[in-house]
Amino acid sequence: MKVSDILRVKGGTLFTADPQESLMHATQVMSEKDLGSLVVIDHGDVVGMLTFREVIQAIVKNGGSIGTTVVRSAMDDAPLICTPDTELDEVRRMMLERHARYMPVMSKGMLMGVISFYDVAKTVVDSQNFENKMLKAYIRDWPSEAGAKEEQPPSL
Fold it and tell me: For the whole model, what pTM was predicted?
């Protein structure tokens, strides 16, 4: 299974932030839209990721307030990035190694979407549930031993 399979189901709505905008404004957008992350875009290029982890770290660093902090000073400026063709197993490995919960998806320099650890986990569980359902249906329709003998052609 590939990242493109997740994006197909998830849809294409993207929320971004500018590196020079206030962190307060970015967190308000995240709160209003119930988002865990914003992709930070500067002049059409992905330059970072802002997640609640970075927001909390900035608040702690500033003694408990956001103050006049801008997105650029709080964002992760080296986010993990994948492509639509990246295999899900590779994405899981990457996310686990870096403790990343969100990953921008890029194709030929263009932002295609963002996948979350939740998206990956849900896809894996849904896939396993479907596979289990198919296996149970197959086992339920398994021919009995007596029925299998009756279906064999008669010997000459």
Answer: 0.78
